[in-house]
Amino acid sequence: MRSGQNLSQVSVGLFLSDLDLALRLSVLTSRNITLIINSSGLENVSYPLLDGLQVLHVPIQDQPHTPLRQCFDHVAEQITQNQTRTTLVHCTAGRSRSPALIMACLKVSASVKQVIEQRPFIRPNAGFWRQLMDYERALFAALVQNLPEMHVLQLSPLWSSQTKNKLFNPKWSRK
């Protein structure tokens, strides 16, 4: 991820920022932004007038009980539909809602899309899909537990340390 003055390029054509940068004409034009996904919770935001600029408002608050999951599919769909152009996802500070939405989108599309592009006829069975999703949840849970600031949230472990060791240090891995 490349960053510059709080504007972060997450992948080709996908940027993450705060509200302030999303309102700057110079930022939008220099990156050729064609879609803004506003997850600031503010609907009356006046963006610079640009031909072809579309704005999607995702009306969510930055609270732990907010049902962000309800937005994942729609946001991922919009980003995917705009993938030949450039998307900017922002919230107020660019630290909570917008990164979570991007991570959900990449989680859903990145690996599956990459494999399908290289081998379009794949069809893993339903059991394998379920296992892949469970594995991804386990990896994400382990990642979240290791984030330095996350201990204040008192996240309960989803896996015992013994299970994590088996999962993340399989006997066939190189040491």
Give a written overview of the molecule.
This protein is an alpha/beta fold. The chain has two domains: 2-121, Protein-Tyrosine Phosphatase, Chain A (Alpha-Beta Complex); 123-175, no CATH class. Helices cover 42% and strands 15% of the residues. It contains six helices and six strands. The chain has a six-stranded mixed β-sheet with strand order 1-2-3-6-4-5. Strand 2 (7-11) and strand 3 form a beta hairpin. Helix 3 crosses helix 4 (97-118). The model is unreliable at 154-175 (pLDDT under 50).
Question: What's this, in brief?
Answer:
With 175 residues, the protein is an alpha/beta fold. It folds into two domains: 2-121, Protein tyrosine phosphatase superfamily (Protein-Tyrosine Phosphatase, Chain A); 123-175, no CATH class.
Task: Explain the layout of strands and helices.
Elements: E1 2-4, E2 7-11, E3 14-17, H1 19-22, H2 25-30, E4 33-38, E5 54-57, H3 69-81, E6 86-90, H4 97-118, H5 126-145, H6 161-168
Protein name: Tyrosine-protein phosphatase domain-containing protein
Keywords: Hydrolase, Protein phosphatase
Family: Belongs to the protein-tyrosine phosphatase family. Non-receptor class dual specificity subfamily.
